[in-house]
């Protein structure tokens, strides 16, 4: 994948458009995994305070170069391998991709050792997709009792990624499946104020379905 390049004026214009369009209740996470440091600095000057990265190693390289931006919130939005959990705890304020019970258990074990407890979203697979990670809703409900035993975790929401190419009314219908699942999980003991769903191609449908966080990359940096 080629690093995304764009003129700084275009980045500014893209962010200004999104800021006008997004309701105040929705947090914009700028997906910066292909954005160079200069583009991220430009986004920061335009008001972006939430950066989303897919890989632990890339964030380890970028964070020292952005130390002059002290109020940035770092979000891990990509799949987290078990051997990267300690580093992820140290680097990120949010982890959106808690996609299996064993990962949650490992994080619960490490949090007291690291001394940091990021906000977590449980990744749910709302539609069949062999290319996506996450719990299927029924599986998550079955494993909820085990999750509730993990008292060091700060679970604050659910996250989903739609199958590639899903758009329009189809996207809206799938996003809406999150609402009854959220209600059921909350009734059984979780507190889930956040729904992290929606990317550059489907964020409008996600917001219509109740998203509180959208993860947008190409619409900002191209």
Describe the overall structure.
By secondary structure, the protein is of the alpha/beta class. It has a single domain, classed as TIM Barrel. The protein is built from ten helices and eight strands. It has helices spanning 8-21, 37-45, 56-62, 85-91, 101-114, 137-148, 168-176, 178-187, 203-208, 218-221, and strands at residues 27-31, 50-53, 73-76, 94-98, 119-123, 154-160, 194-197, 213-216. An eight-stranded parallel beta sheet has the order 7-6-5-4-3-2-1-8. Strand 1, helix 2 (37-45) and strand 2 (50-53) form a beta-alpha-beta unit. The protein is globular and about 50 Å long. It starts with 7 loop residues before the first helix and ends with a helix.
**Number of DSSP-assigned strands:** 8
* Global geometry: globular
**Within the CATH hierarchy, at the fold level, what is the topology?**
TIM Barrel
Using the CA coordinates, give the radius of gyration: 17 Å
Features:
222 residues; alpha/beta; TIM Barrel; 8 strands; globular; disordered N terminus
Short description:
The chain is globular, with a radius of gyration of 17 Å. Helix 6 (137-148) links the parallel strand 5 and strand 6.
Can you lay out the helices and strands and say which pair or pack?
Layout (H helix, E strand, L loop, with lengths): L7 H14 L5 E5 L5 H9 L4 E4 L2 H7 L10 E4 L8 H7 L2 E5 L2 H14 L4 E5 L13 H12 L5 E7 L7 H9 L1 H10 L6 E4 L5 H6 L4 E4 L1 H4 L1
Parallel strand pairs: 1-2, 1-8, 2-3, 3-4, 4-5, 5-6, 6-7
């Amino acid at each position: 994948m080629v690093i995304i390049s764009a003129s700084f004026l275009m980045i500014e214009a893209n962010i200004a458009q999104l800021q006008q369009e997004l309701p105040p209740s929705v947090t914009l996470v700028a997906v910066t995994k292909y954005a160079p440091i200069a583009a991220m600095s430009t986004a920061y000057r335009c008001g972006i305070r939430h950066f989303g990265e897919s890989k632990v190693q890339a964030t380890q390289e970028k964070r020292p170069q952005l130390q002059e931006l002290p109020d940035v919130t770092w979000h891990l939005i990509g799949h987290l391998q078990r051997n990267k959990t300690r580093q992820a705890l140290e680097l990120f304020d949010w982890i959106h991709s808690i996609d299996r019970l064993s990962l949650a258990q490992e994080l619960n074990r490490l949090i007291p050792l690291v001394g940091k407890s990021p906000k977590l979203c449980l990744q749910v697979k709302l539609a069949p997709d062999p290319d996506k990670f996450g719990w299927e809703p029924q599986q998550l409900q079955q494993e909820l009792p085990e999750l509730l035993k993990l008292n060091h975790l700060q679970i604050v929401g659910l996250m989903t990624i739609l199958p590639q190419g899903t758009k329009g009314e189809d996207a809206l219908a799938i996003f809406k499946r999150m609402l009854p699942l959220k209600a059921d999980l909350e009734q059984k003991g979780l507190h889930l104020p956040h729904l992290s769903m929606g990317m550059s191609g489907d964020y409008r449908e996600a917001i219509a379905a109740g998203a509180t966080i959208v993860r947008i990359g190409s619409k900002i940096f191209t």
